[in-house]
Design goal:
Helix content is 44%, strand content 13%. By secondary structure, the protein is α+β, with helices and mostly antiparallel strands. The strands form two sheets. The protein has a four-stranded mixed sheet. It has a four-stranded antiparallel sheet with strand order 2-3-7-6, with no helix packed on it.
Length: 398
């Protein structure tokens, strides 16, 4: 597709007039998760059918092949509408870019069009009970089996695994190498024999995270993403895209600044100078995050690694979510913790306050991001690592 930004915005406006759902009018992902997922798939397919999915993705795989300025125009036109980003950030913002960069031609042709249309939802199978911030300590094992492998192990904190059709999995294929080597990335069928998903209950009452158990799951050579034993490169690329995606739009942040402003007007606090200053501060932070996200998107679109910029954006976006959630609690007052069941906002503000801390953890904790910035921006010495060159099988774990 070619054309001006104005033409794109007109097409988006026409689409939303027919298919758009205002934020807050869509099925609640916490109260009606099944309906939310179904509505998200319908919306994404309609977007693809209208030729508006994958603004910056190559046309060969169903995208539009446009630049970050077109993506920004799309986002501006869609402001105030439900985009179902909670379900699609991992697949479209993280798995898709990795497949575009490292996948074979067969993998890109097979996986990217249905990913873009939401015919297949994807998840990320990285973290383990003993490998969170130290992801390279992962112990899930892929044992040779003919021309393929048998995978056994456990993953945890896997968002939307119970609604996913496929996922990108990290498994150790050579324990004789140091922990950052000997890892391979696989494209995994979540319906394959031996894959068991168990949702985990969160403080909000949701069950969006999951444990995933892998018991002798068969993967073939065609499932390898990148090169065998070179999965750390793929993982680093995936984590970079995760931070870019979270800097652009924190996953499912339920309390928006627009909603807080509307609340202030309804409750008569819009004229309160303290509230007005807090809203102004949040607005400035919001604009900073948005503009920084555009800068990062611009780097990615021309093939440059944004590096530590992604960590800066991720930190800022997580702090903004926490700032807005706290502001909502202040404006709502007692109604934030005790509300009339008939109130359509109901427990939204309390939910947002409980949810916000997760955004400082997802995609790498604030401490991890600070370490990245210290080493790569400030030039500080690397964190001590005595096990970096030790074969994984010789490490003391647990």
């Amino acid at each position: 597709m070619t054309g001006s930004i104005a033409e794109l915005r007109r097409r988006v406006a026409d689409f939303l007039a027919v298919h758009g759902c205002r934020t807050g009018e869509a099925p609640s992902r916490s109260r009606r998760p099944g309906e939310y997922v179904a509505a998200a798939r319908v919306h994404q397919r309609a977007l693809a059918d209208a030729g508006l999915a994958g603004i910056t993705w190559p046309q060969a795989y169903g995208g539009l092949g446009l630049g970050p300025e077109h993506r920004a125009a799309f986002d501006a036109e869609a402001a105030g509408y439900e985009t179902f980003s909670a379900l699609f950030t991992i697949g479209l913002g993280m798995c898709g870019p990795v497949l575009l960069a490292l996948g074979t031609q067969e993998q890109r042709t097979r996986y990217l069009p249905p990913l873009l249309r939401a015919d297949e939802v994807w998840c990320q199978l990285f973290s383990e009970p003993g490998a969170g911030s130290d992801l390279a300590a992962l112990a899930t094992r892929a044992t040779p089996d003919g021309d393929g492998w048998r995978v056994s192990g456990q993953k945890v904190w896997t968002t939307y695994a119970h609604h996913s059709d496929r996922g990108l999995l990290l498994a150790r294929t050579d324990p004789g190498k140091p922990k950052h080597r000997g890892i391979t990335m696989f494209a995994l069928d979540m319906a394959a024999p031996g894959v068991t998903t168990r949702p985990l209950r969160q403080a909000t009452g949701d069950a969006e995270f999951n444990e995933v158990f892998l018991d002798d799951v068969r993967v073939g050579p065609e499932d390898v993403v990148g090169a065998v034993d070179e999965g750390w490169r793929a993982a680093t690329l995936m984590l970079m895209n995760e931070r870019v995606a979270l800097a652009d739009s924190p996953i499912g942040s339920p309390v928006t600044l627009e909603a807080v402003v509307a609340l202030a007007r309804r409750t008569g606090r819009a004229g309160d100078p303290v509230v007005r200053k807090a809203v102004a501060d949040a607005y400035v932070a919001h604009q900073q995050v948005e503009l920084f996200a555009r800068r990062i998107a611009g780097e990615v679109s021309v093939g440059r690694d944004p590096g530590a910029l992604a960590s800066i954006g991720k930190l800022a976006a997580g702090r903004l979510a926490t700032q807005v959630a706290a502001l909502a609690m202040e404006v709502a007052g007692p109604d934030a913790v005790a509300w009339d069941p008939a109130d359509p906002d109901g427990g939204l503000w309390a939910y947002g306050e409980l949810y916000a801390p997760s955004l400082s953890i997802a995609g790498g904790t604030e401490q991890i991001q600070r370490t990245v910035l210290g080493e790569r921006v400030l030039g500080l010495p690397r964190e001590p690592s005595t096990d970096r060159d030790v074969p994984f099988r010789d490490l003391r774990r647990g």
